[in-house]
TrEMBL record:
Entry's transmembrane regions: none
Protein name: Glutamine-binding periplasmic protein
Organism, as annotated: Mycolicibacterium smegmatis (strain ATCC 700084 / mc(2)155)
Entry-linked Gene3D superfamilies: Periplasmic binding protein-like II (3.40.190.10)
Source organism, top-level taxon: Bacteria
Keywords: Signal
SUPFAM superfamilies for the chain: Periplasmic binding protein-like II
SMART domains: PBPb (SM00062)
CDD domains xref list: PBP2_peptides_like
Pfam families assigned to the protein according to its UniProt record, in alphabetical order: SBP_bac_3 (PF00497)
Keyword DNA damage included in the entry's annotation: no
């Protein structure tokens, strides 16, 4: 479906934060840009529905769809049993591994080097679950009520309030190998599947979005969005 229609907007809950290439802060001039907004725009075009972003703190994204304030969450939602108990998910639109970011020169190279060190991650996330597997590390949860939890974690790392940050490898892409303050210590091949979350009482909405996502994958349009925003990461759904 590609023709323009007057159907209701596709309301998507998201975190309003700067985390390129995944997403950018919303601006009146440009809206949101990045891989996830690119996926959203492709979905909207496929469904003939304009995209409307419902910008809320991280902890309020799933409650927003449960309340009916948004149709779905398209914002960094790894498909986990805990989240599946609260919402239903589409098929994955991304598969990412997880990285451990440190201050440059710290010398951390492996999980064994994290013994006695403070390791930040977003609370109740797949990243926190990984942090909790590092024997002897001290997990430090971030996120409750924050408007930009990723920026909070980077600031804490720079201020030496924590020694490492765990997040999906995609969010560390723009930091690169030559960033003056940070470096990637190591990556764990966790292959986390990210999906679009929909309230359990809206099966028709789930089927509509999932069907559109299936068409984007089979047609190669999702691959095109991936290559535009994530060219250094392997496309996970075949060519």
């Amino acid at each position: 479906m590609t023709e323009t229609t007057t159907r209701a907007p596709l309301r998507l809950a998201c975190l309003d934060a700067e985390a390129p290439p995944l997403f950018s802060l919303w601006t009146p001039e440009n809206g949101r840009t990045g891989y996830e907004p690119g996926v959203a725009e492709a979905l909207g075009a496929e469904l003939g529905r304009p995209v409307e972003w419902v910008r809320v703190p991280w902890v309020d994204m799933i409650p927003a769809v449960q309340r009916g304030d948004a149709d779905a969450v398209l914002c960094g939602q790894g498909i986990t049993p805990e989240r599946q108990a609260q919402v239903d998910f589409t098929r994955p639109y991304a598969i990412f591994h997880e990285g451990v970011l440190i201050r440059r020169g710290t010398g951390i190279k492996s999980p064994e080097d994290l013994v006695g060190r403070k390791v930040a991650a977003i609370e109740n996330s797949t990243n926190m679950k990984l942090a909790e597997t590092f024997t002897g590390a001290i997990p430090v949860p971030f996120g409750a009520g924050s408007d930009d939890v990723y920026a909070d974690m980077l600031a804490a790392l720079l201020a030496e309030e924590v020694d490492a940050v765990v997040d999906d490898d995609v969010v560390f892409v723009p930091l690169g190998a030559t960033h003056p303050d940070y470096e990637l210590a190591f990556t764990v091949k966790t292959a986390n599947k990210w999906g679009i979350a929909v309230s359990k009482d809206r099966p028709d909405t789930l089927a509509e979005i999932d069907g559109a996502l299936e068409r984007l994958i089979s047609s190669g349009r999702l691959r095109d969005v991936w290559k535009e925003w994530l060219p250094t990461l392997d496309y996970p759904f075949g060519e």
